[in-house]
Amino acid sequence: MTAELLTIEDLDLAYGSAAILHGVSLTVAPGETVGLVGESGSGKSSTVRAALRLLPPTAGVQGRVRIGGRDVFGANDAELRRIRAEEVGFIQQDPRGALNPVRRIGDSLAERLVKVHGMPRAEARRIGVELLGAVGITRPEHRLRQFPHELSGGMLQRVVIAAALTTRPRLILADEATSALDVTTQAEVLAILRDQQRERELGMLFITHDLHLAAAFCDRVLVMLRGEVVEELSGAALFTGATHPYTRSLLQAAPELEERSR
Ligand SMILES: Nc1ncnc2c1ncn2[C@@H]1O[C@H](COP(=O)(O)OP(=O)(O)OP(=O)(O)O)[C@@H](O)[C@H]1O
After folding, report:
1. Which residues contact 115 (CB under 8 A, 6 or more apart)?
2. Which of 81, 127, 134, 182 has a Cα-to-Cα distance from 159 of 20 to 30 A?
3. Whose CA is nearest to atom 17 of ligand 1?
4. How is domain 6-97+170-260 classified at the CATH fold level?
5. How far is the CA of 67 from the centre of ligand 1 (A)?
6. Nearest C-alpha neighbor of 233 from the set 243, 247, 221
7. pLDDT truncated to tens, each residue of the chain (262 aa)?
8. How far is the CA of 45 from the centre of ligand 1 (A)?
C-alpha cells in the first residue's frame, strides 16, 4: 500500500504516429511540491491531462496512474468522476476559462459540493465564504454575488484556487497556475497555496516554465524534454546541481531575477 497521492508509471501518449510522451514516471507524496519544467511542447500539460484522463479520444495512452491509491486508467466513468471530484483540485493558467462567465462566483464555488456531494445549498455557501476568506478575498459575501467579469485576474485566480479546495482534495495539479499574474499577485497566490498545503498536507504537482519559481517553490523538480523526464533535482539544487545539458541550457536561458521584476 503506497502513501503517494499521485503515482504515474511508464506513461506513454501518442496521437496516431506522433509520440508525445515516453515512459513518464513520477510521484507526489502528501505535503510535497513536485515541479515539472521544460520548454513549450515538452509534454508537461499532456502528462497532467493524461493522468486525469482529460485527453481527446484520439489520444493513445498507456501506463499506470494512481490517484489517492485509486487506479485511474482502470476506473469506470462513475469512479473516474469520483476520483476527479474528491481527490484532485485542478488549477489552470486562465481563471476566466475555468469559471462560467454567466454564473455568479458563489454558484460556481458551490456547484461541486451541491451536485457531487449532495450538500445543502446553505452549507455549500458557508464553505464558499470561508474558502474565499482563506484565499485572501475581502468581503466574501459580496464577492459570491458577483460575476467573473467584475473581478480582476488575480482575484479570479484566488477564486479558482478556492473552488479547487472546496471538496478538500489532497492533491493539487497546478498547470501554470500563476503565470498570467503580475509578480506581486503571483507571490500572494503562491503564499496562499503554501498555507493551504501546510494546513492540509496537500501534495502538489506544479507545472511552470519559470525555473526560478520552480527552484524556490518546489521540493523536487523534474525536467522534461520531448516527452521524457531527463533529470530530477531538488528545488534547492536546480541552479547548482544540474548535469543534463538540456537542463543547463534551460537554466542559462532563464531570465535573471532582476530582469523579471522590471
Ligand atoms: N490534441 C492533440 N493532438 C495532437 N497533438 C497534441 C494535442 N495536444 C497536445 N499535442 C502535442 O503534444 C505536445 C506536448 O504538448 P503539451 O501542451 O503537453 O506541452 P507543454 O510542455 O505543456 O507545453 P506548454 O508549456 O506550451 O503548455 C506538443 O507537441 C503538442 O503539439
Report:
1. none
2. 81
3. 45
4. Rossmann fold (3.40.50)
5. 22
6. 221
7. 457 999 999 999 999 999 999 999 999 999 999 999 999 999 999 999 999 999 999 999 999 999 999 999 999 999 998 899 889 999 988 888 888 999 999 998 888 788 877 889 899 889 889 888 888 889 999 999 999 999 988 889 889 988 888 888 999 999 998 888 888 888 888 988 898 899 989 999 999 989 999 999 999 999 999 999 999 999 999 999 989 998 888 888 887 655 555 5
8. 7
How far is CA 118 from each of CA 110, 125, 155, 166, 167, rounded to the nearest angstrom?
Answer: 10, 13, 28, 13, 12
- How far is ligand 1, taken at its centre, from the CA of residue 157, in Å? 23
Helix (H) / strand (E) containing 106: helix 105-115
> What does the domain layout of the chain look like in residue ranges?
6-97+170-260
Q: Ligand 1: does its nearest atom lie under 6 Å from the Cβ of 49? A: no
C-alpha 191/C-alpha 49 separation (Å) is 25
Through-space distance between the first and last CA atoms of the chain, rounded to whole angstroms? 49
Question: Which pTM was predicted?
Answer: 0.89
Q: Is the ipTM of this complex over 0.85?
A: yes
Q: Atom 31, ligand 1: which residue's CA is nearest?
A: 41
